[in-house]
Write a structure and sequence with these properties.
Layout (H helix, E strand, L loop, with lengths): L2 H12 L15 H13 L5 H9 L2 H4 L4 H8 L1 H10 L6 H4 L4 H18 L2 H21 L2 H17 L6 H11 L1
Helix pairs in contact: 1-3, 2-3, 2-9, 3-6, 3-9, 5-6, 6-9, 8-10, 9-10, 9-11, 10-11
Length: 177
Amino acid sequence: MSKLDTAIRFAAERHEGQWRDGESQMPYITHPVEVLLNLRHVGKVTDEAILLAAVLHDLLEETTTTLEELAELFGERTAELVRQVTRDEPTEAEVAGLSKDEIYELRTARFLEEIKQMSPEAQMVKLADRPSNLREAKLTRSEKRLKRYQAQTERILEIIPESVNPPLWRAVRAEIS
């Protein structure tokens, strides 16, 4: 079995019981697979570690999977890419007393700073992730929340240079145009 096949099966197992948002919910694994397909077919990425990171990118945030497990099963480079694309959420103490809008702005500021620190390879995974999330947001978010998410995406495109992966960058741009 290839590492990619193993990663898809591993992610499907770990995301079991999780669903994407919306009325017609899809199993969560459809999202990491879509990110993989965006990287491979839109971005023309063939680097195995980057493709593996695409499939595994939400495991640290959404499951009990550890960085050590990912490194052992899929290699240090893949684990490092997954670590880079994993969001560092504010603590309860950091959000205490803040409004929902203030919390969103804090999370966004932290998220954008993390993107600035990512390697170009991790930024490619982030670019491949965004069209999937934007398409989902169009189906599931209120107009206010969708516009806010699209504005956040604009800020991401200001940070990640188009040269990181022009086809992926343009795919993100097309989703917000």
